[in-house]
Amino acid sequence: MSRTVILDFDGSVAGLDGAEMIDLRNREEEIRFGCAEAALRALPPFEPAGIVFMGSGDFHHVSAELIARQRRRVQVLVLDNHPDNMRYPFGIHCGSWVAHVARLPEVSRVHVAGITSPDVESFHAFENHLGPLRSGKVVYWCLGRSLRMLRMLGVRASQSFEGAAEMSRALLQSLSPDPIYLSIDKDVLAPEVVQTNWDQGVMHLHEVQSLVESVKERVIGCDVVGDVSAYRYRSRLKRILSALDDQPEISGDSLELSREMHRLVNRRLVSLLGHL
Ligand SMILES: [Mn+2]
User: What is the Å distance from ligand 1's center to 73 Cα?
Assistant: First the structure.
């Protein structure tokens, strides 16, 4: 069994036997939603782990630092309901980190799979970092979206599919032999499976599982976000920005129930990727 690490920014991840908990609660305000790139580099070093839980999807940009720390050639496979490749002028944030990762010389390609967000469609297309999409360094694997506008903007490699099985088949064929860094945002799952604090996709747990099964021999590092925590920012800018993104809030009884569901999914992921 390999090491499981919890980067505990928000207290949302619990109940994983044998996991090492790294207390980062005093960094929550600074890192949550978005931060300066230097703030990510300043995170304490820790021994390489098989699977790293980072809490809410509001911390997904921490993946950029974990991938940079791999310091070896990798292709990145992100499972997420959002492209996480949007323009953001205030540093790096949970919706823009893929663009930063795409600039790393060691990263051969970033695949983002399971996207159902309208962020990829019509005039939202302009809000995406188009350079890496046009060059094919970043590839979107969407479900049920029209990529007409992206096509008009010169994006060829990204595709949309009717169903997850079809998407996974095409994605698996297009992966290179490079080692894989896997980053899972549980907002890729349908809200019937688990509830996250972002709008969610349509994938079932068995579909995510079988995709992970198919690649796991080549996975050299993995992180997971999408757990639930409520938070009120001290920073006015962050309050405004997160309100603009229409983040649903989960609290009270539904928070407890929701965490129970996340525990089950997290344990499943640990048992799938425990060989790392
Ligand atoms: Mn994400």
Answer: 22
Set out the domains of the chain in order of their start, with CATH numbers: 4-273 (3.40.800)
- Residue (of 208, 195, 198, 212) closest to 164 by Cα position: 208
Per-residue pLDDT of the chain (276 residues; tens, 9 = 90+): 478 999 999 999 988 988 999 999 999 999 999 999 999 999 999 887 889 999 999 999 999 999 999 999 999 999 999 999 999 999 999 999 999 999 999 999 999 999 999 999 999 999 999 999 999 999 999 999 999 999 999 999 999 999 999 999 999 999 999 999 999 999 999 999 999 988 999 999 999 999 999 999 999 999 999 999 888 888 888 888 887 777 767 767 778 888 999 999 999 999 999 777
Cα distances (Å, whole numbers) of residue 12 to 169, 170, 196, 199, 203? 33, 34, 11, 18, 22
Ligand 1 centroid from CA 152, angstroms: 26
C-alpha 274/C-alpha 245 separation (Å) is 34
Q: What are phi and psi of 140, to 5 degrees?
A: -95, 140
- Tokens 């962020």 correspond to 119
**C-alpha of residue 80 to centroid of ligand 1, in Å:** 5
Q: How far is the CA of 201 from the centre of ligand 1 (A)?
A: 11
